[in-house]
């Protein structure tokens, strides 16, 4: 990696969506996605802004330094991201969702799979709602017929 001087200044990402909780501003700690090419995206957490580089033909000053996930999300490494390629900026990473989806408490039988499908259809499998997944009043916990509608009868 080339040498650079980093700072913690916010960066405007002109092509970032403003839909939902996404903004067009990226700061250290923000969770972002960006286009890596026409059909692929990167995902990661902002470390800071590149203030100056020892550029060798291409100046990356103003780019974001990002801890990016790669290799099927089993590895991470630093990437320099052009703010024009950023498509979404979230203030916080989806920590609750990632903790749940990577946690030890996972499906043990076919009934658990059906419950997960019902949770997804109910809209609970998002970072904002995953903490309420065991709420006894949720349809997939309170009504067996809700879960049953997603199971093929033989």
Compute the number of structural domains. Answer: 2
State the helicity in percent bands.
10-25%
Structural class assignment: alpha+beta
Rounded mean pLDDT is: 92
What is the H/E string?
Answer: EEEEEEEEHHHH
Specify Rg, calculated over alpha carbons: 20 Å
Q: List low-confidence stretches.
A: none
**In percent terms, what proportion of residues is strand?**
25-35%
Largest pleated sheet: 6 strands, antiparallel
Give the overall shape. Answer: elongated
- Overall number of strands: 8
Q: How far from one another are the termini?
A: 57 Å
Tally of contiguous helical segments: 4
In short:
This protein is an alpha+beta fold. The protein contains four helices and eight strands, in the order E-E-E-E-E-E-E-E-H-H-H-H.
Describe the structure.
With 154 residues, this protein is of the alpha+beta class. It contains four helices and eight strands, in the order ββββββββαααα. The protein folds into two domains: 4-90; 95-148, no CATH class. The strands form two sheets. Strands 1, 4, 5, 6, 7 and 8 form a six-stranded antiparallel beta sheet that branches. The protein has a two-stranded antiparallel ribbon with strand order 2-3. The chain is elongated, with a radius of gyration of 20 Å.
Features:
two-stranded antiparallel sheet, 2 domains, alpha+beta, 19% helix, six-stranded antiparallel sheet
List the helices and strands and how they pair.
Layout: E1 4-7, E2 11-12, E3 25-26, E4 31-35, E5 41-53, E6 64-70, E7 75-81, E8 86-90, H1 95-102, H2 110-122, H3 139-142, H4 144-148
Antiparallel strand pairs: 1-5, 2-3, 4-5, 4-8, 5-6, 6-7
């Amino acid at each position: 990696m080339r040498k650079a001087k980093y700072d913690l200044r916010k960066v405007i990402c002109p092509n970032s969506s403003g839909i939902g909780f996404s903004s067009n501003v990226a700061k250290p700690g923000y969770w972002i996605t960006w286009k890596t090419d026409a059909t692929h995206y990167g995902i990661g957490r902002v470390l800071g802004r590149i203030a100056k580089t020892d550029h060798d033909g291409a100046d990356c000053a103003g780019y974001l330094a990002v801890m990016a996930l790669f290799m099927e999300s089993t590895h991470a490494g630093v990437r320099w991201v052009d703010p024009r390629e950023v498509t979404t900026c979230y203030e916080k990473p989806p920590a609750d969702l990632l903790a749940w989806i990577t946690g030890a408490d996972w499906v043990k039988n076919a009934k658990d799979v059906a419950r997960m499908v019902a949770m997804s259809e109910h809209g609970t499998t998002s970072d904002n709602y995953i903490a309420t997944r065991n709420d006894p009043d949720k349809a997939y916990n309170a009504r067996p017929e809700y879960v049953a509608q997603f199971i093929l009868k033989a």
